[in-house]
Amino acid sequence: MNQLSDDLLILFSQGSPQAFKAIFDSFRMRIFHFVRKLIDDRLVAEEITSDTFVKLYRLHDKFNTYNNIQAFLFITARNASLDFLKYRQRQRGHLTELLHHEEQEMDDPLFADSSIEADVLQFIYTEIEKLPLRSRQIFKLFYIEGLSVNDIANMMKISPQTVSNQKTTALKVLRMKVLDRPGLLLCLLFFAGEKRY
Question: What integer pLDDT is reported at residue 95 of this predicted model?
């Protein structure tokens, strides 16, 4: 039921902080409980709820009816929740794949020394941090966080071709660093073997 007056909705569309607070108070718990039903993580649910209201306020001039505000809040919260669930599933998939890969490595003569795994990861992450800023960001987003070339391009507001060029250049730089260390090179080849578009 609409508990917000037409005058308050008009004030909100004009950017009134007081009107925003009234809308926030009216919807906050409903949005939070809605998100909690989708996500079993209270902190993430609180974060998504807050982000949803931030997005509403940024677009305040687009809304002047109760129904439009309500629809925007629930759709935005739902989409953010689904995005988080997809991200978490992708991260779990990467972890499973990485653990499987590590099990295979342990049977490989190159990885016979158990101390090499820590050495491998430490060396690669150190070298990644030495990359130029944009190359480093793209490398991490693509190879570590699992985003696609198009997702990165949209996020960074650059062309997909630029993303492809930067990640290829970064990988070449890292490969040059590990040419004399076969174990490290294998790790990089594992990274490069994941194709995402």
Answer: 55
